[in-house]
Structures are given as structure tokens and as C-alpha cells.
Design goal:
The protein is an alpha+beta fold and about 210 residues long. Helices cover about 35% and strands about 35% of the residues. The chain is built from 5 helices and 8 strands, in the order ββββαααββββαα.
Length: about 210
């Protein structure tokens, strides 16, 4: 019921769709009409190719936007040949829906990261760093006498799957043994990353008084 795409062109030769604030383009090239199959009350067409292209300026874009783009292309590449899955116009709406779903989820992840970078100090989050498809969260609390780095590996499945993690302790005795049970109580789902940070703050770093 939702769309993350904007139709930029529809001609006899091709259709062009933009996603994610015009930073991602899908070009669908049409072939010959398909006998006995209709699309939008007109004879359907075969699809020769579906080509994805990124227009994100990675040098200028914030790290969260680069991560979002990487995850979306991770999904695109994981599906193999899009032309095999979308041989005619009949299959195009489902393809657009599948892409929209991943774009929407990854876009929300980008918004979560921006929120944490802006308001992380409220949760004893000193630093948020992004490297490739890993999110590194540096926590520091004088109350808990603890400083540690939590690294989460995100993928295009976010937020539907539990995030693999590792911990590096800098100060104090909060490590993987202490963090694992806290993370296990945070169910995957909407705003998963934010809820992980809030749970660590509440269970391990906040003033027990």
C-alpha cells in the first residue's frame, strides 16, 4: 500500500523510476508485446533489462546515507538476475514493491543513526561510527565506571533479524557477557537500533539510584 518510487519517464522504449530522494534510479527497458497478457488494460510488454544506478555523492553524503545505499545494493545484488524474476510488465509491480520495502526499512535505519548521532549523549553514547556495513557505538558512563564499544553488523534484512555483535571493553567490566542478555531481550522490529541503545542505557549505564 506504500511506494518509495517516483515515475520519471514512461515511453515505448523504457520506464525510469527514482528512489531515495533521487539518489537511486531503476531503468526498465521494454521489449516486444506479450501475447495474451495485459498490463493496465493494454497489451503487456516483455522486459529486456532492469538496471540500477546510484547517484549518491559518497564524498559529500553523510555516512548514514552511504550505509543506506550500500544495504539497498546488497539487497539488489542478493536477488541475482532481476530480468529473470521480472520478464514482463506483469511482474513489475511486485518488483517495485520489494524494492520499496527494503528502501523504506533502510531509510528508517538512516534516520535512527542520525537520531543517535544527534541525541546519543542522553544515552551515554559518546560516538557513532559507520564502517562498511558495521555500526560502531562507543558508550561511556562515569556512573557505571564503564567505557566500551559495541559493534553491530547490519544487513538489508534490518530490522527483521537479530543483529550479530561484538564488544570491546576499554574501561570497567562491562563486556560481551553483560551485554548479551540485554540485547537478547530487545526484539527485532521497528526502531531496533534505537531500542538497543536505550536498553543498554537503562540496564547497564543509568544511575541505579
Amino acid at each position: 500500500s506504500f511506494t518509495e518510487w517516483e515515475l520519471m519517464e514512461w515511453s515505448e522504449q523504457q520506464a525510469v523510476f527514482n528512489f531515495l530522494y533521487d539518489s537511486l534510479t531503476l531503468t526498465v527497458v521494454f521489449g516486444s508485446p506479450v501475447d495474451g497478457e495485459f498490463f493496465a488494460a493494454r497489451p503487456s510488454r516483455s522486459i529486456i533489462s532492469l538496471d540500477f544506478e546510484s547517484f549518491l555523492d559518497e564524498e559529500q553524503a553523510p555516512p548514514s546515507s552511504c550505509l543506506v545505499q550500500r544495504l539497498i545494493f546488497q539487497f539488489i545484488e542478493s536477488r541475482g538476475s532481476w530480468q529473470d524474476k521480472c520478464p514482463t510488465l506483469h511482474y513489475l509491480p511486485q518488483a517495485l514493491f520489494d524494492i520499496s520495502l527494503v528502501v523504506n526499512r533502510c531509510k528508517i535505519l538512516g534516520e535512527e543513526l542520525e537520531f543517535l548521532q544527534r541525541w546519543g549523549a542522553k544515552f551515554h553514547l559518546l560516538e557513532t561510527d559507520i564502517k562498511d556495513t558495521e555500526v560502531k557505538l562507543l558508550f561511556s558512563s562515569s556512573v557505571a565506571f564503564a567505557k566500551f564499544e559495541l559493534t553491530l553488523a547490519v544487513s538489508h534484512d534490518y530490522p527483521s533479524a537479530v543483529l550479530p555483535f561484538r564488544v570491546q571493553t576499554h574501561i570497567g567490566n562491562i563486556g560481551e557477557k553483560e551485554i548479551a542478555p540485554v540485547l537478547s531481550r530487545v526484539p527485532a522490529g521497528h526502531h531496533y537500533l534505537q531500542r538497543i541503545v536505550i536498553s543498554i542505557h537503562q540496564n547497564l549505564l543509568d544511575d541505579p539510584a
